[in-house]
Write a structure and sequence with these properties.
Strand content: under 5%
Structural class: mainly alpha
Number of helices: 3
Number of domains: 1
Number of strands: 0
Order of helices and strands: HHH
Radius of gyration: 15 Å
Length: 67
């Protein structure tokens, strides 16, 4: 049973690190990835990430190149 708990914790940490990288590459604070731990808030944060204007786009000359 302890092995499953350690496995689950490793998966959660992996996803937090991955979301941290995604938020950071989009130009937001990586700390936003911690919102993915909160039920229902994670859906809102994910939708915000998908549809908000990213700060990194404002820094580029041609943000429409991303499609």
């Amino acid at each position: 049973m302890a092995g499953m708990g350690i496995f689950y914790l490793a998966i959660v940490i992996l996803f937090i690190v991955a979301y941290w990288k995604i938020w950071s590459k989009a130009g937001f604070s990586g700390a936003w990835s911690l919102l993915m731990l909160i039920p229902l808030v994670n859906i809102i944060a994910f939708l915000y990430l998908a549809f908000a204007e990213w700060p990194v786009h404002r820094q580029l000359a041609n943000p429409d190149d991303f499609g």
